[in-house]
Design goal:
alpha+beta, 12 strands, globular, Aminopeptidase, binds coenzyme A, 12-stranded mixed β-sheet
């Protein structure tokens, strides 16, 4: 008797979250993601984003997913993204081909002509991307840090500088958005974030369920928030750096480094075991800060770009 595989591509439902996260993280422990967060991402709708998740079921089991949306917070039009993965043992059975086709259809219907996705620096993933029409571009690195090992000695705080927890801005994070907005414009990437909105940031970044306001640390200069590091945690001992940012006029004074060190110190004291982060390969300042903090490179990825309808 020959066994026939049945593949179904369908919309994500909240009870898929655990399986979708397991597929997302399998063999990629550096990706910090919770089921709660995936449900939340699918519940919230930012204007113009059209966020949607599809899952692939092989023989009735969810083995992978793709998250896709139109890029927002930018004046660039026609760009969308699709990011996903499939459980290693379920690969090469057409699951991601089906997921990507569903994502591309959804995005094309919303005016997207160029799809961006992150591709693992692994032979199968790169082969898939090339076979499905993606052109490989910029490189990113993941790195990790064992928080049970000692952190560097904290430098003396410069006069007028304080380090405060994000909880101090819990209900009114506008000063933190101002830092984010300034730094986002200078983050390396193809799509410049030159049109971010405070309300979208509050909903999409500050109110994420895995954002840990107590571990998020803000460097304040003479009473003015100047730099921050955003901490996300999975409640199971993992820490992810959401964003480290410094306003342009405060750069080059070691404020981001101080904020991130303090955040990691608080995380270690709270029992968090491991911290992970991702950086563009050209982001020299952030790579230098992370090296100083003791992060070590553990994986890589590439941006893949595909023209739709080409
Ligand atoms: C990329 C990824 C999603 C593919 O998932 P998948 O379900 O195995 O993909 P499919 O079965 O639909 O398509 C597999 C195709 O990829 C290519 N491919 C995959 N592995 C390959 C390998 N080792 N050698 C050569 N080609 C390979 C082939 O074109 C293959 O088609 P074929 O099996 O008909 O020869 C999966 O490898 C993964 O989860 N990687 C990590 C996440 C990631 O990088 N995602 C970005 C995707 S753009």
């Amino acid at each position: 008797m020959t066994s026939k595989t049945s593949l179904t591509i369908r919309d994500f439902r909240p009870d898929d979250a655990e399986a979708a996260v397991a597929a997302h993280r399998a063999g990629r422990e550096h990706l910090v993601m919770t089921a709660e967060n995936l449900v939340w991402m699918n519940d919230r709708q930012l204007p113009g984003e059209h966020f949607r998740t599809f899952v692939a079921e092989l023989d009735g089991r969810v083995v992978g997913s793709v998250r896709c949306a139109v890029a927002v917070g930018t004046t660039t039009v026609g760009v969308g993204y699709a990011n996903g993965s499939v459980l290693p043992e379920a690969r090469r059975r057409g699951a991601f081909t089906g997921l990507l086709a569903a994502a591309e259809r959804h995005l094309a219907e919303r005016g997207v002509t160029e799809v961006h996705g992150w591709v693992d620096d692994a032979p199968g993933s790169l082969a898939f991307a090339a076979a499905r029409g993606f052109v490989i571009g910029r490189q990113g690195y993941f790195s990790g840090r064992d928080l049970t090992l000692p952190l560097p000695q904290a430098p003396v705080l410069p006069a007028g500088v304080e380090l405060r927890p994000g909880t101090d801005w819990a209900d009114d994070p506008l000063p933190l958005f101002v830092i984010d907005e300034d730094a986002s414009r200078d983050e390396p990437g193809e799509v410049v974030l030159d049109a971010t909105e405070y309300e979208d940031w509050r909903q999409g970044v500050w109110n994420r369920p895995d954002l840990d306001q107590a571990l998020t640390t803000v460097a304040v200069v003479e009473g003015e928030p100047a730099a921050f590091t955003i901490a996300q945690t999975d409640g199971r001992g993992l820490y992810w750096s959401g964003f480290t940012a410094c306003r342009r006029q405060f750069r080059g004074r070691g404020l981001s480094k101080l904020a991130k060190l303090e955040s990691l110190r608080l995380a270690a004291a709270a029992g968090v075991r491991h911290a992970y982060t991702a950086n563009d390969a050209t982001n020299a300042p952030m790579l230098a800060i992370n090296a100083w903090l003791g992060y070590e490179r553990c994986a890589g990825e590439f941006k893949g770009i595909k023209r739709l309808g080409a």
